[in-house]
Amino acid sequence: MSKRNAFAEHDKPPSKLINSYDIDGVIFMGDKFTGVNPGPDDIIITGRSKDDRAETESMLLSRGITNPLYMNNKPGDFNDRRQSGLHKGMTLFYLEQMGYRIGCHFEDDPIQIEAIEQMMPHINVVHLKHDLVDKGVDTHENVVYNQTIPSY
Ligand SMILES: [Mg+2]
């Protein structure tokens, strides 16, 4: 099997159940604290914008973390916590269709947890509950907040 480049997707889905990790408030806990580290085949799904990829990769590399990194395809100045949660749900959905099996997703934001659980109720979303990292201020009003998410 070829060696995977840092942050690139796996060549094929891992044969074992894997876990998924949020960054801010989970892997990254500010300058004062060290967050959690993903296991070898685990993946990272962040609400951070793709515009912040370079900064995000260097932070992860400084921790020795090179797991597959799924960033949010949104403008850098756009922040909507529910949209971030739906992005994580969509990414988990896409990966499952590719044959991935996700055991747990580790997450600190209750708004995002609600969105992920609506989309992917069979995935265990583990809430790391704390206020050590700012969860960010929405720059966008999610006008479809009460939309019905289709189940599958
Ligand atoms: Mg977070």
Question: Could you give the topology of this structure?
Answer:
Blueprint: E1 18-21, E2 43-49, H1 53-62, E3 69-72, H2 81-97, E4 102-107, H3 110-119, E5 124-127
Parallel strand pairs: 1-2, 1-4, 2-3, 4-5
Helix pairs in contact: 2-3
The structure holds magnesium ion.
Please compute the radius of gyration using only Cα atoms. 15 Å
Q: Give, in order, the helices and strands.
A: EEHEHEHE
Provide the domain count: 1
Sheet with the most strands: spatial strand order: 3-2-1-4-5
Please name the CATH topology.
Rossmann fold
CATH class wording: Alpha Beta
Helix content: 10-25%
The helix/strand class is alpha/beta
Q: What small molecules does the structure contain?
A: magnesium ion
Mean pLDDT: 93
Provide the descriptors you would attach to this structure in a database record.
Rossmann fold; 3 helices; binds magnesium ion
Report on the architecture of this protein.
There is one protein chain. Strand 4, helix 3 (110-119) and strand 5 form a beta-alpha-beta unit. This protein is an alpha/beta fold and 152 residues long. The chain is built from 3 helices and 5 strands. The model has no long low-confidence stretch (mean pLDDT 93). Helix content is 24%, strand content 16%. It has a single domain, classed as HAD superfamily/HAD-like (Rossmann fold). Residues 22, 24-26, 108-109 line the site of magnesium ion. Residues 22, 24-26, 108-109 line the site of magnesium ion (MG).
